[in-house]
Amino acid sequence: MDKPTFLLVGRQGQGKSSVGNTILQTKRFATKTTGAVASVPAASPERADNDRVVVVDTTGIGDSGSDRAGDVQSVIQLANEASVCGFDAMIYVLKYGVRFTKQEKDAVQMVKSIFGENVFRDWGILVFSYGDNFDLDTEDDGMTFEDWCQEQTGDIKTLFEEVDYRCVLFDNRGKNTARQDQERDKLLKLKPPRLQRYSDEDFQAASAGREKLILLENFQSLKKETDDLLRYVDQRRETLRRNDQRLSNDDLTKQLEVVLQQAKQHYDRLLDKDRGTKVLRELLDQVRLRTIGLGSRIDHLRLAIPVRRNDMSLIAVLFWYLIGLILSSCKIPFNYCLKPAIYFIYGIIARCLQYFYNALGRHQRRREKYTA
Ligand SMILES: Nc1nc2c(ncn2[C@@H]2O[C@H](COP(=O)(O)OP(=O)(O)OP(=O)(O)O)[C@@H](O)[C@H]2O)c(=O)[nH]1
Ligand SMILES: [Mg+2]
């Protein structure tokens, strides 16, 4: 039968490599001389084994990019390398005595996003390092580690429940080898419910979570790009509104269409990145509202032109009909001398009327631009 593989994950300096060494009963992984967090890029996972077990030690998985000189992409790359060969259990290392803060909760969520939401439930085991500190804390009341686990509340209780209280306390510094043997045996006997090995297939199935994680990491820069675009759209609209008297409706429409095109391109880009994760929904909504505003303004301007022309031609017909009515009721004799004079007067009246309606049209158009 194959030796079981244990993957070690957790935040920096929690004692992962030390736990790995205790499991293997020999110093195979380099440990930090102090618990200080170093800002170095995460290195590739390391594998080591003995006759009973294979251990894969990681340095970066479970730490957010802000703690490390590496981004989420590189952490995912490391996780990918770690899961290529698969593992039978994932050991999440926590340092005993450190409060389970939001940072710790985020790290747990990050591990779930990378390996799959059920990775703790199906393959997870919690190992608490600094068992020597636990002994010091409980030497007066003699509380057992199991009792201590049951007593915990809040977010850490949720995590305990998720792993169904599969927890072990490790004293990696202690010289008590009998105690370490006990801890190691307890760990090796713990069987996660999913007996099937975590494989590359499971890793591929969790790709949506990783995409979401990358998007969340890039959210701020995408938000900044979107804010810049919205500001640009608003500025262009304001500039065009101020200059609309100097621009024809056609020019105004064309320039607004250019702005609309840019907004639509940005929307498509966001939509492409979002891929149904809904992380960018807020940004998408903002851009969509602007495109709707721009679109309806353009439609308004386009519609305004034919309607006004129709009005004008109707008014012209009515005008000539009225003139004909007046002339027929006045019974003016249409002899050769009078005809040119009448046409001349017609012309002057028509010109005045046209001028009047043009002025009215300009005024109306300006109002339409402001309200669109
Ligand atoms: N007292 C005590 N110290 C421990 C214990 N386990 C780990 N340490 C110390 O904690 C420090 C960090 O341990 P590492 O095993 O290097 O931690 P790590 O999680 O592998 O660190 P990174 O690889 O940098 O993420 C070292 O100085 C260890 O000696 C423990 O059970 N008790
Ligand atoms: Mg280490």
TrEMBL record:
Q: What family does the database annotate? A: Belongs to the TRAFAC class TrmE-Era-EngA-EngB-Septin-like GTPase superfamily. AIG1/Toc34/Toc159-like paraseptin GTPase family. IAN subfamily.
| Record's keyword annotation contains Transmembrane helix | yes
Keyword list, A-Z: GTP-binding, Membrane, Nucleotide-binding, Transmembrane, Transmembrane helix
Q: Name one Pfam family in it.
A: AIG1
InterPro entries with a match to the protein in the record: G_AIG1, GIMA/IAN/Toc, P-loop_NTPase
Stretches assigned to the AIG1-type G domain: 1-207
- The transmembrane residues are 312-334, 340-360
The protein's name: AIG1-type G domain-containing protein
The source's superkingdom equals Eukaryota
Species per Swiss-Prot/TrEMBL record:
Lymnaea stagnalis
Query: Molecular function (GO) terms listed?
Result: GTP binding
Q: Which PANTHER family match?
A: GTP-BINDING PROTEIN A, GTPASE, IMAP FAMILY MEMBER-RELATED
